[in-house]
Amino acid sequence: MPKASEIKKHAAIEYNGRVMIVRDIERSVPQGRAGGSLYRMRMYDVVDNSKVDETFKAEEMLTLADLNRRPAMLSYVDGDEYVFMDDEDYTPYHLNKESIAEQLLFIDESTKGLSIVVVQGMPVSIDLPSSVELVIEDTSPSIKGASASARTKPATLTTGLVVQVPEHISSGDKIKINTAESKFMGRAE
């Protein structure tokens, strides 16, 4: 059983007899209090998608929910629903655009290493690989000889994600992105 301070975004926990996915965590340290931090978590019920905001003390123990991770790939988009196909048994998993909006910025049809988080037989979230390869859709023109400089410029990727890239990178280049920090890691091979 982890402490509240050890819980990460997109974790599944059991809370009041319900399985909840943690979508956002804010840490605060109240003034004048001898003691630890407070963790305000925005959680969503996996069954009815109802929202719950709750604050936990750093040392409070929470129970992780029983969940499975299934390797999958994006298959197709149907309106606001994204359909992922299990890599092993070809089970389709339907996820609403709202519930995975943050992760969608890192996903296109060629993204490998995705996992669907399944709780009680229902798909609830996506686990991203540590890095993904995406193509730059738009950025200012590259500057010749700029490879030695440390200056960066914004680049919009095909998924809509905007990252800072070195000046020598240009539109159409395929680059590697760190999914945890949304940072440029280098050109893709």
From TrEMBL:
Gene3D superfamilies referenced in this protein's UniProt entry, alphabetically: 2.30.30.30, Nucleic acid-binding proteins
Keywords for the protein's UniProt record, in alphabetical order: Elongation factor, Protein biosynthesis
InterPro entries referenced in this protein's UniProt entry, alphabetically: Elong-fact-P_C (IPR015365), NA-bd_OB-fold (IPR012340), Rib_uL2_dom2 (IPR014722), Transl_elong_fac_P/YeiP (IPR020599), Transl_elong_KOW-like (IPR013185), Transl_elong_p-like_YeiP (IPR011897), Transl_elong_P/YeiP_cen (IPR001059), Transl_elong_P/YeiP_CS (IPR013852)
Elongation factor P C-terminal domain sequence ranges: 132-187
GO molecular function: translation elongation factor activity
Cellular component, GO annotation: cytosol
Residue ranges of every copy of the Translation elongation factor P/YeiP central domain listed in the record: 69-124
An example Gene Ontology biological process: peptide biosynthetic process
Record-linked PANTHER family: ELONGATION FACTOR P (PTHR30053), TRANSLATION ELONGATION FACTOR KOW-LIKE DOMAIN-CONTAINING PROTEIN (PTHR30053:SF14)
Family: Belongs to the elongation factor P family.
Name by which UniProt lists this protein: Elongation factor P-like protein
Natural source organism: Pseudoalteromonas piscicida
